[in-house]
User: Fold this.
Amino acid sequence: MGIENKSPETTMGRRGFLKGAALAGAAAVAAAAMPGCSSPKSQSQSAEATQASTHPSGYMCSEDWLGEAPAIDESKISDVVKADVVVCGSGHSGTQAALAAAEEGASVVVLEARNVDSDTGYLHYYGQEFGHFNSQWLINQGYGPYDTGEIVTEFCRRGGNRVSPAIIRAFVDNCGEAFDHFIGLIPSDNHMLEMGPKGELGLHIAYGRNPEDYPIEMGGYKTWVGDAMFWGKYSDEPVNGVGAMSNISEAESFQVAEAERLGAKWYYGTTAVVCTQNSDGDVTGVIAKADDGSYIKFEAAKGVILATGDMGQNGEMIWNLITEVPEWCERQGVEAGSVTAMTMNDGSGLKMGCWAGGYIEPGPRPTMSMGGGGGGPWGTAPFLWVNAEGKRYMNEAVTVGAFSATLRQPIGTIATITDSKWLTTVQRASIDHGAPNYTRPQYYDDLVTDMSTVVAAGAQGGLVRTCTIAERMQSTVYGADDLETALKYAGYEGDALKEALATVARYNELCYAGSDADFGKDAEVMIPIDEPPFYVAPSSNSGKGVAGLVTLAGLMTDENLNVIRPDYTRIKGLYAVGNCLGQRFGNAYSTPTAGVSIGMAMTHGRVCGKTVANL
Ligand SMILES: Cc1cc2nc3c(=O)[nH]c(=O)nc-3n(C[C@H](O)[C@H](O)[C@H](O)COP(=O)(O)OP(=O)(O)OC[C@H]3O[C@@H](n4cnc5c(N)ncnc54)[C@H](O)[C@@H]3O)c2cc1C
Assistant:
């Protein structure tokens, strides 16, 4: 007999599709009866097109990125493992889910597709930060306790209210405890916990502000201190890659060790394939494939937690679901399906959730894109930004809008323009994701050192080490004693050059008047560009086929992270955390402190592990 993995979504999906096609046909007929609407010919064409479509019901896309749930015959199962809680994926969210469930006394198994790194003996984890609020660690440093309701509201506003306030709240209310618990498992004399100017554990703060100055309000958005950074070793030399020096994987190894001590069992090289369900549609376990090709059935007495991360390497899913980035890319000639994010995850947990009857949150579905806006080693600091035509196009202090506003400009250069007073803007920036970061003051000194070489570098431009979370990466800045030459070095010529010069003149008028009547940027960062040397740092808004670091669209759940069906009934036994969890970011990755992607993954993982263990 075959394994019981009845999938309501696949049958429901087809039924839903037929129903959807019928509705589309009815709408076309109704439209034809109205003056000025489509002709009978176009009406029948559109009905045919709808019927030919094979997209999963409820998603406005053209391809069947979901497919059928794999049917795995019982005879192929080589082993059956029983546990209270089955966690799929051992990234930041899954590790915390497993640990929390084990701490609550549940028996736990973790299925992880990858194997541990042979050099370190533990898994590699992405990134370096744990963004959170109100931990004792923060409070001891003078940051907080902050008003949690105000922070929840700020998250919702930044997410265009396309988020679940309850899911945000589950993060904001529990992240402080989650962080204290996380570092509490690292021996107190460990090198990773060393703070100070060159210590390995940093805290993202703004230059020259006191703890009571937070939240900083800039561009109409608030930021609080909360981004703990597992930077790793201090380096004078340039470092390539976001989080390239990070020691967060080592920090995670202590979490795994504690969970194992409490009895949790990790199955490495074991890929979760499909959920098993009973005749009511409740999830009863998971079938996974081991590296040797054998299948193992994991039975979950209490629940399955999907923690397999995003769809970063699944070009088909990204093309069909994360529509904003592929739309821009396709217009620039990027091949369909070739847009990916930076992780190795393939969206398999998201598909498992859909096959079990769940669905992915509606669009526009977010990705984690770094900032946007003009170039330079100072990230999203609120300098003057101009587009390829030399025109200013937004309030540069609205970091939340930088990515989308920049995409809407003519394709080409997006440049930061500044002058000898550039450091003042860096110092006055807020601490949004991608903003300057005063964690290691030496980095600001190095910025000054590197900037001092830029003018002499002439048309070549100077390489300047960054002062953002992307520590020690380098950025090209052009400098000259007159603005026109600096703009020419950065590639501006002809009408664009004239326009850029006129834009700076207008910007200076606004600065002298003390009010940005054009776009409303905060007066404190309206600093005239009128003292040599002048600097121009170009970047580009052209589509490169990259959907950011990770995709952030996840499954719809209730406030307890229990996956729901389209009719809001709960799928008993199925939970989602990390980038499998939807309704966290809404339109885009914009958060009131940096590092929240990992912060949420860990916190929701911990909350969910406790919940499922106590069912
Ligand atoms: C280069 C880079 C730098 C980043 N830096 C930061 C940062 O500093 N701060 C921040 O907040 N965010 C950062 N991010 C984003 C952040 O790392 C992710 O959002 C976070 O890792 C999400 O956690 P997760 O548990 O959902 O997924 P992941 O951490 O990606 O873990 C998913 C795990 O599931 C496993 N898996 C996948 N499919 C299966 C399957 N079918 N069966 C079994 N196992 C499976 C994977 O191997 C992986 O171990 C960064 C991302 C990248 C790529």
Summary: The first strand starts at residue 77 and ends at 88. Residues 88-94, 111-114, 125-129, 131, 242-243, 271-272, 307-309, 342-343, 345, 348-349, 368, 549-550, 578-579, 595-598, 601 surround flavin-adenine dinucleotide (CB under 6 Å). Residues 341 and 526 are 35 Å apart (CA to CA). Residues 384-540 form a domain with the Flavocytochrome C3; Chain A, domain 1 fold (CATH 3.90.700.10).
